[in-house]
Amino acid sequence: MSKGSKGAVTRAAGFLAAGVACGLKRSGKRDLALVHCPGGATAAAMFTTNRIVSAAVEIARRHVQSGRICGVVINSGNANACTGQKGINDALTMCRTAARHIGADTHEVLVASTGIIGHPLPIARVKAGIAAAAGELSASAAAGHNFARAIMTTDTRCKEAVKTVRISGKQVTIGGTAKGAGMIGPNMATTISVITTDAAISAGMLKKAMAAAVGESLNRLTVDGHQSTNDTAIVLASGAAENPIIERDCPRYRAFAAALKAVCDDLTRQMALDAEGATRMFKVVVTAAASQAEAARAARAVADYDLVKCAVHGGDPNWGRIICAVGSCGVRLDPQKLACKINNTTVFSKGRPIKFDRAKVSSMIRRQEHTITVHLGVGTHTDFCYGCDLSREYVTINADYHT
Amino acid sequence: MSKGSKGAVTRAAGFLAAGVACGLKRSGKRDLALVHCPGGATAAAMFTTNRIVSAAVEIARRHVQSGRICGVVINSGNANACTGQKGINDALTMCRTAARHIGADTHEVLVASTGIIGHPLPIARVKAGIAAAAGELSASAAAGHNFARAIMTTDTRCKEAVKTVRISGKQVTIGGTAKGAGMIGPNMATTISVITTDAAISAGMLKKAMAAAVGESLNRLTVDGHQSTNDTAIVLASGAAENPIIERDCPRYRAFAAALKAVCDDLTRQMALDAEGATRMFKVVVTAAASQAEAARAARAVADYDLVKCAVHGGDPNWGRIICAVGSCGVRLDPQKLACKINNTTVFSKGRPIKFDRAKVSSMIRRQEHTITVHLGVGTHTDFCYGCDLSREYVTINADYHT
Fold it and tell me: What whole-number distance in Å separates Cα of residue B93 and Cα of residue B55?
C-alpha cells in the first residue's frame, strides 16, 4: 500500500464500502466485498481476454453496458469459473441480492469473483455475506480498507492507491484497490481492480481513460505470463466533485487520465512487489524496435523468462540471458547494434560485452526495482513491461497449494 | 542414459571419439570433445533459430554445406557467443586445429560450443585440448562415453542412446549423445546433440530424416521456453554398414528414419528428466484443435506454464491451471466441449469439472512421466510437447549461478 492510501476505495466522494467474512476462505478471513454509490456512477470495465471466463465476468460484461452502476459485489476464495449454468445463476443471484440491499436494479450491480476454479459457490453463505456487508456500508477509511482486504487471495499485502488532481478549480479524487499475486500476464494483468472517483466524466471518456491507464500499467505486468479466467478492472465515477463534466479530449480529460494512470501504475507496482514469492521487481524497456508490437513482445519475453527472473533473484547482472530471450522471441534486431543497460550502466554494446562494475550493478539489481533497457538497433519503437523475480518461495506456494 | 547405451557415439562402425579436460571448466572436468570419421561421413545439422548465434554456429552452418565431414570438435564451459570477430577466428582455429590432427581440411570439421556467453575462448588451452583429444581417439565405448561427458554443462547425467535396425540384411547402428538442462525451448530444444550412424544414406535423405526426427523430439521439449544461442544437432553417416545406399523415400529410408527418431526421442526424454531441478517430466497432447499450429501452441502453453509445472512438482491434479493456460494462449476452442485427461482419467469434460479419484491421479503425476491431454473441441488437429516440473532446485541453480 502506498503511504496515506489506506481505505482508497472510499476516498472519493459518493462511495460507501464494506468487507466481511462469509466463510468462503477456510482461514475465516474477509471474503465478501461491496462498494455502493448511492447517487449512481458512470462505469467502465475491462475484462480478461482468456477464452474461458468466469460466470462473474459474463454477467459483469453484460451489466456494464448499461453505463450507470450503483454497486459492485466481489467474493474471494472461489472463482465461480467452469461452473456451468449454476455459476451463471449464482453470479446473477449475487447482483440481485446486492441490488435489493442497496436499493438498485440487478443490472446496476457489477460482480467479480476470484479464487479456486471449478467449485460451485456456496450461494447461501454468499447471500448472507452480502446482507452483512450491506449492513456495514460506510464511507470511512476503515470500511474502504476492509473492502481491499476482502478481495485478496494469496496476496500478502493490501494494494491501495490514491491520487488527487484539481480540475477546473475542483479537487477530484481517484482511489483504487487491486488484488493479484499469480496467474498474471499482460493483457489484463489485473486479476481484480476497483477504482472509484468523484470526477464528473462521460461514460465514453471514462472508458477511454481507463483503457489507456490499464494499457500502460496493469497490462504491462507479467508474473507468470498467463491471464486468469477472472481478470476484471472496474472504474466508477460518481460526479460528486462537481467539476464541469469531461466529455472530450481536452486538458481536463488529460489531467484526469494522467491521475487515473498514476493510480493504476501504483497498484501495478504494488502487485509486482507482492507477486507470489517475489522479493523485487524490474522494468524492461525495449528501444529501437522495428514495430510497436515487436517492442512489446521483446519486453515481455525478457520479463517472462525464468532464467532472467532467477538472475534478478540472485542479484546477477546476467545480460547473456537477457540477450538470449530477445534473440529467441522472433523480433527483428541487428546483432551488431544490440545493446543492453541495467539502470544507467551499459553492460553490452554493439553486440559485445562491456566491462562494468559487477558489484555495483549487482547491488542495483538487489534494490526494490531496477530497469533493464535493450536496444534492438533496427527502428524507432519503444515499449516496456514490468516483471518480478522468481524465488524458491514461488515454487513452494504453487507446488504445495492443492486443489 | 538408456541401458546399454554407454559410449553411444562410437557404437556405429567408422567413428572414433575422445573427451578430455583442457581447463575451460573450473571444476577440472572434461570439456573438450572430438569425434573423427576416418572415411568421411555424410552430414546434416540443425541449428538454433535464435537471432543471436554463437561463432561456432556461424562456422558450422558454413562447413556443413560441403556435405562431407570428417570430424566434430566441441568445447563446453564457454559458449563463444557474443565474442565478435575474435570468436569467429577462434571457432575457425578449432576446426583448423582438429583438421590438422585428423588429417582433414578445415571445412570438413564442424564445431560447437556450449557454456557461458560473452567470454572470449582461452584458445591456447583449447588448441592443447584438441591435440590431447586427437591423441586419445578410440572406437571404444569408454572413449564414446568420455565424449558424452565432455559436452556436459549443468547436466547431472550423460545422455546417450543407441538403436540398431536391419536394412536390406545389414545391421545399421545409430548412436547419439546430447547435452542440455536449461535454456531449452521448442524449435531446437537441443543445445548440443551429436548422432553417428554407419548407415549409407545420401546427404539429402539424411537431412530429411534428421529434420523429421528432431521435429518430433528435440523440438518438442520445453524446459523454460527459450532456445539458446548455441543449439546444434549434428548427424554423421559413415556408410560403413554397407547397406544399399538410401537415396529416396523407400521402406529402407523409413526404417532408418524411425530408428533415428527413436534415438532422438530417447535423448529428449533423458534431457527432460535431467532438466535443471526437474524431478519428473510430462507430455502434453492437444487434440481437436482448429489447426496444427494451434495444437502445437496450446501444447507448448501448457508445458511452459510455471503454475502447471509447479502443480506437477507437487503432484497436484490442478486442471484449472491447465485450462487457464489453454484459454489464454489465443487458440480457438469451444468452452462447452473443452475436456482434459491426466493419463486415462478424465478430470474435466464438456467445460465442467468431473469427480475423480484425486489420490490415484496424484500418484500418477508423481511417477516419472505422465500425459496431460486437452481436447479443444473445434477441429481435427493434434500435436504434443514435452515438459518437466519446476522445483525450488531450479531457482537455486539459476539464481546462484553467477556470470
Answer: 11
Q: How far is CA A239 from its chain centroid?
A: 24
Number of other CB atoms surrounding residue B364 within 10 Å: 17
Q: Assess whether A190 carries a catalytic annotation.
A: yes
Q: Is A144 helix (H, G, I), strand (E, B) or coil?
A: helix
Contact (CB, 8 A) for A153 and A77: yes
Residues forming beta bridges with residue A283, ordered by sequence position = A371, A386
Cβ neighbours of B83 (radius 10 Å): 25
With the CA atoms of A264, A269, A272 and A277 taken in that order, what torsion angle do they form, in degrees rounded to the nearest 10? -130
Taking each helix axis from N to C terminus, what angle separates A306-313 and A319-328, rounded to the nearest 10 degrees? Answer: 160
Cα A208 to Cα A205: distance, rounded to the nearest angstrom: 5
Given A228, A311, A398, which is nearest B399 (Cβ)?
A311
Output the nine-digit C-alpha cell for A25: 476462505
Helix axes B251-273, B203-215, angle to 10 degrees: 40
User: Measured between alpha carbons, how far is B113 from B97 in angstroms, rounded to an integer?
Assistant: 15
Instruction: Write out the DSSP string of B205-257.
Output: HHHHHHHHHHHTTGGGB-SSS---S--EEEEEE--TT-PPPB-SSSHHHHHHH
What's this model's pTM, rounded to 2 decimal places? 0.84
CB B353 within 8 A of CB B347: yes
Q: Do residues B90 and B55 make contact, with C-beta atoms less than 8 angstroms apart?
A: yes
Q: Where are the beta strands (DSSP E) in A54-101?
A: 68-76
Of A42, A83, A114, A190, the active-site residue reads A190
**Does residue A188 surpass a pLDDT of 60?**
no
How many angstroms from the chain centroid is the CA of residue B85? 28
The residues pairing with A373 across neighbouring beta strands, listed in sequence order, are A285, A341
Looking at the DSSP bridge assignments, the partners of residue A201 are A246
What residues of chain A lie within 8 A of the CB of B319, using their CB? 118, 403
| Three-state SS sequence of B252-320 | HHHHHHHHHHHHHHHHHHHHHHCCCCCCCEEEEEEEEECCHHHHHHHHHHHHHCHHHHHHHHCCCCCHH
User: How many residues would you count in chain A?
Assistant: 403
Chain B: residue whose CA lies nearest to A230: B324
pLDDT, averaged per 10 consecutive residues of chain B (403 residues), comes to 84 97 95 97 90 92 92 95 93 98 97 90 97 98 97 92 96 95 59 93 95 88 74 93 96 96 93 90 97 94 91 93 89 94 96 93 95 97 93 85 59
Q: Which domains does chain B have, with CATH numbers?
A: 8-273 (3.60.70.12), 281-400 (3.10.20.340)
Nearest Cα neighbor of A87 from B176, B245, B171, B351 is B351
Dist CA A145 CA A139 (whole Å): 10
Residue carrying C-alpha cell 556435405: B67
A333, B51: Cβ pair inside 8 Å?
Answer: yes
Question: What value of ipTM does the predicted structure carry?
Answer: 0.80
Region of residue A187 (left: phi > 0; alpha: psi -120 to 50; beta: else): left
Is some CB atom of chain B closer than 8 A to the CB atom of A84?
A: yes
Give the residue carrying C-alpha cell 527483428. A332
Q: Please tell me whether residue A89 adopts helix, strand or coil conformation.
A: helix
